Amino acid sequence: MHDDQRPEAAWGLDTLAIRTGHDRTHEQEHGEPIFPTSSFVYGSAAEAARKFGGEEPGNVYSRFTNPTVHTFERRLAALEGGERCVATSSGMAAILATALALLSAGDEIVASRSLFGSTVSLFDKYLGKLGITTRYVELSDLAAWEAAITPATRLLFAETPSNPLSEVVDIAALAEIAHRHEALLAIDNCFLTPALQRPLALGADLVIHSATKYLDGQGRAVGGAVVGRDKELEEVFGVVRTCGPCLSPFNAWVFTKGLETLSLRMKAHCTSALALAQWLVAHPAVERVHYSGLADHPQHALASRQQGAFGAVLGFEVKGGREGAWSVIDATRMLSITGNLGDVKTTITHPATTTHGRLSEEQKAAAGIAEGLIRVAVGLENLEDIRTDLARGLDALV
Ligand SMILES: *Cc1c(COP(=O)(O)O)cnc(C)c1O
């Protein structure tokens, strides 16, 4: 209600993350309230008719209109620089809703090969059933993207930087290719968040989030979101409204509060990750470190230009293959052995037997998932304690 009096257009990212999207109610609360209600009441039959018919804005039913969810949506839209955001029950629901909204039988997707595992299953198994086919290409190879596009291609889908090898694609160049072929570009921005990368400003049409990761940042809730233009988001909203993968008010509130510290957290995550990567490079048990913040990473220059920092997920290969990697993981006492990431708690995982375990040997080789590869998602504990926990197993391998 005060939007037109607020100087939001001039606000920086940290201010938007803290101040935008909340209209104070008559209770004059300082913090953002939660509205745990399934439905809303009307003053009259005529008002109900107008709100149901969309002639008058207002809340109807929490599958598609809830003030707490709306606060999160407005805040994330502002951070990503999008016209509109639609929140969903998970990151996967955000990708599903986008596909159902924008694609039909016979349409094609071109996607980067190194995607989140469930995204690949969604594309191949479930969208495949609906007659939507996906071709996969090497993330950083722009010529391969262009070559995979056919007249049926409607959507280009990329996750950058990739997990766990930290490969990067030039978003502006990929957007130009997509638009030349009348396709849309969607970027899964989970790993960097709008604090470090704003794909819409670089020409992407849609941004996908698993809010479960850094937007919350403390591993408390599962949720997701799609951000972009009104035109496409109205279709995504239609899917969420009708099919029902909606975000709960409680989770929306958790994410709204998470956004308030996003930028500070991301800076701290990235500072520790870079220092850890440099320390790993120098360790004699480590054969290779994959992190775009290192000067010898193949896309270091692009990452430096496109990203505010290099993210907090890094991969490193140790001596001794699977046995070596497992011994380093098992020697930790503090790090959480889990496939999750985007948490204040540092996590460690062996991609070849967990997150990428369903891939064939050839697919693993093509994706660069070596048996000695370990992925660490660097949290916010003291860096010295993270190093000590890793050094125990690494020193024993030398
Ligand atoms: C976790 C994740 C998803 C899926 O999100 P959920 O909230 O777990 O459904 C999608 N993309 C990336 C890059 C992820 O890390």
Compact overview of the structure:
Helices cover 40% and strands 15% of the residues. It contains 15 helices and twelve strands. Strands 1-7-6-5-4-2-3 form a seven-stranded mixed β-sheet, with helices on both faces. A five-stranded mixed β-sheet has the order 8-9-12-11-10.
Task: Draw up the topology in text.
Blueprint: H1 13-19, H2 45-52, H3 67-80, E1 84-88, H4 91-102, E2 108-112, H5 117-129, E3 133-137, H6 142-148, E4 153-159, H7 171-180, E5 184-188, H8 193-196, E6 206-210, E7 224-228, H9 230-243, H10 249-260, H11 262-281, E8 286-290, H12 300-306, E9 313-318, H13 321-330, E10 336-337, E11 347-349, H14 361-367, E12 373-377, H15 383-397
Parallel strand pairs: 2-3, 2-4, 4-5, 5-6, 10-11
Antiparallel strand pairs: 1-7, 6-7, 8-9, 9-12, 11-12
Helix pairs in contact: 1-3, 1-10, 3-10, 4-5, 4-9, 13-15
SSE ordering: HHHEHEHEHEHEHEEHHHEHEHEEHEH
For this structure, what is the CATH class of the largest domain? Alpha Beta
The overall strand count is 12
Q: How many structural domains in the coordinates?
A: 2
Radius of gyration: 22 Å
- Helicity range: 40-55%
Q: Looking at CATH, which topology of the largest domain would you report?
A: Aspartate Aminotransferase, domain 2
Q: Kindly state the mean pLDDT as a whole number?
A: 95
End-to-end distance = 64 Å
Describe the largest sheet: 7 strands, mixed
Instruction: Output the CATH homologous superfamily of the largest domain.
Output: Type I PLP-dependent aspartate aminotransferase-like (Major domain)
Oligomer type: single chain
Can you tell me the residue ranges where pLDDT is under 50 for at least 5 consecutive residues?
A: none
Structural class: alpha/beta
- Alpha plus pi helix count: 15
Bound molecules: pyridoxal-5'-phosphate
Record the strand order, biggest sheet.
Answer: 1-7-6-5-4-2-3
